[in-house]
Amino acid sequence: MRDVLGWRCKFGVLGPSTNTIVQPDFEMMRPPGVTNHYSRIFTPNAQAVSNETFMAGTQVIGENTLEAVRSVMTCSPDYLVMGMSAVTFYGGTKGADAFQEKVEQAAGVKISIGSHSCTAAMQAYGGIKRIAVLSPYYPVANEQVIRYFTDSGFEVVRDAYLQCKSWTAIAEVPPEVLRERLIELNGNGRDVDAIVQVGTNLSMVRLAAAAEMWLGKPVIAINTATYWHALRANKVMDKIPGLGRLLEEF
Fold first, then answer.
1. Number of C-beta neighbours around residue 15 at 10 A
2. Are 153 and 131 within 8 A, CB to CB?
3. Residues 217 and 126 grouped into a single domain
4. What is the mean pLDDT of residues 35-52?
5. How high is the pLDDT of residue 62?
6. Which residues does 197 contact at the CB level (< 8 Å), separation at least 6?
7. Among candidates 170, 149, 200, 173, which has minimal Cα distance to 13?
8. According to the 3-state scheme, what is the secondary structure of the chain?
């Protein structure tokens, strides 16, 4: 017997309790027969975040993840989707593998995480070697993102960090600010093959889809990449229009 609404797949979605973007983003991308079941990772809303405190704050989220896993597993999801990205980049590819293995062992089901999903997305597009990265993070966290992508065989030509002052402030960054940063990261347009946005509480799904048209190259929002990866890992191959080439073509 299958779940009446989630007859194709039930996703357990893990995200910080301060995150207000992942849940509506994933619902926007959800095809019929797939259901999302959000489990909040307890996260104090850090204020006046600094380069010194950012890493410690995200590590707290990482440490609280397994409690959210235990909670969501009570609804018997078929698969997990990680709606928090920073900790999935820490320690390079080995750190990402270790984080994924820890969650999968606790859950007993597989998970899509942001770091590996972005790599899979770029491989799907093909021909991507040099990238630029946009984040709401601080320099110390961007260093970890760059390390991960370098481990994965990409050259990070440029990066930008917004240094948001609280976890909830990430969701308050307006599209015009993000658009300006995308233009800056694109540079002369010739030395970057793609732009990758990380930080799941940054609202970028629709903007990234639009930016692909006026920049003429892949612009990958991490929420799009992660949900796409989860769908394809479960053989849900629906092409979803209007949210970028990744969901429309691959």
1. 27
2. no
3. yes
4. 86
5. 83
6. 133, 134, 135, 178, 204, 208, 219, 220, 221, 222
7. 200
8. CCCCCCCCEEEEEEEECCCCCHHHHHHHHCCCCEEEEEEEECCCCCECCCHHHHHHHHHHHHHHHHHHHHHHHHHCCCEEEECCCHHHCCCHHHHHHHHHHHHHHHHCCCEECHHHHHHHHHHHHCCCCEEEEEECCCHHHHHHHHHHHHHCCCEEEEEEECCCCECHHHHHCCHHHHHHHHHHHHCCCCCCCEEEECCCCCCCHHHHHHHHHHHCCCEEEHHHHHHHHHHHHCCCCCCCCCCCHHHHHC
C-alpha torsion sign, points 140, 141, 146, 147: positive
Please state the φ and ψ torsions of residue 240, each to the nearest 5 degrees.
-110, 115
Distance of alpha carbon 218 from alpha carbon 35, whole angstroms: 28
Amino acid in position 64? N
Centroid of chain to Cα 216 = 22
Q: What global pTM score does this model have?
A: 0.97
Partners of 220 in the β-ladder: 196
Same domain flag for 17 and 99:
yes
To 5 degrees, how large is the angle CA 57–CA 15–CA 207?
Answer: 100
Phi, psi torsion values for 212, nearest 5 degrees: -60, -35
Q: What domain range includes position 47? A: 9-115+224-249
- In a shared domain, residues 187 and 239: no
Largest Cα–Cα distance of the chain, in whole Å?
A: 55
Inform me whether the pLDDT recorded for 48 exceeds 70. Answer: no
Q: What is the pLDDT of residue 47?
A: 72
The whole-number pLDDT of residue 170 equals 97
Tell me, rounded to whole angstroms, the distance of Cα 48 from its chain centroid: 23
